[in-house]
Write a structure and sequence with these properties.
Blueprint lengths: L7 E7 L3 H11 L4 E11 L2 E10 L2 E7 L10 E7 L7 H13 L3 E9 L2 E8 L5 E6 L10 E7 L7 H11 L4 E7 L12 E8 L2 E7 L12 E7 L2 H11 L10 E3 L5 E6 L2 H7 L2 H12 L6 H9 L1
Parallel strand pairs: 1-4, 5-8, 9-12, 13-15
Antiparallel strand pairs: 1-13, 2-3, 3-4, 5-9, 6-7, 7-8, 10-11, 11-12, 14-15
Amino acid sequence: MSKTNQKIVPHLWYDKEAKEAAEFYTSIFPDSKITNVRTIHDTPSGDADLVSFELWGQKFMAISAGPHFKLNPSVSFMVNFDPSREKDAKEKLTEVWNKLSEGGTALMPLDKYPFSEWYGWIQDKFGLTWQLILTNPEGEERPAIIPSFLFVGDKCGMAEEAINFYLTVFKNSKQGLIARYPGGMEHDKEGTIMFSEFMLEGQWFTAMDSAHEHKFGFNEAISFMVYCDTQEEIDYYWERLSAVPEAEQCGWLKDKYGLSWQIIPSNMNEMMSKGTPEQLARVTNAFLKMKKFDLEKLEDAYKG
């Protein structure tokens, strides 16, 4: 996957720790770097730091914008350590686990499980959760880091419907492996999704249902930015994804499953990273008034 055209970029919301978190993650994973840090002023949360970074060659964005949303395990990141791609894959996994564990909490201890020789689920000191897995090199190669959705509470049992919905909305998409819960499980209903993978816009995701008692669900702390080249494209995603009118603001929307997306013009990053302070202020001022982004108005604000 070429790095420049990653169309869907995970966006992490922190109270004040975006820079610190990005520095922590880029120090842990290979092929990682912070690509841009900038501050936008006078947002509803005051001054907000925006940090663009790459982990294992994949793009992420983080923002420090106040204590409004708390990271939780409903969206985690699965990290594949593939012995066919990586010698000492198991040792490397353990090393990453130890670093992420510092100040963190194990949700599933690092151990051998029926589905993997070496696996663990860890919530790091910033609240972000990671599933580290030694993958079976027989299968088709997968990216190193894959966003993973956990359908819980009133959304439990909807993973399959959600995947099918996303497959119709996004282009260049396909269903991968599906594993269902067998009968006779204590909590989980037979036929619901135990594990499933799917590709949207050439990027892999995984999803599962869990009927256990979880005290969390999808929220704005992790959203997915979808970069669009034209106003038509912005309109297309907005129309299909947005399901919660009161959640619409500044390019953000919530879909019918509660996941947050940001529908963003592709040149927004360039405007924000290359612009003068005046240009930044004008663009920020313009987009804070918008729900769905108006590409022409943003470009006019940039040009002044």
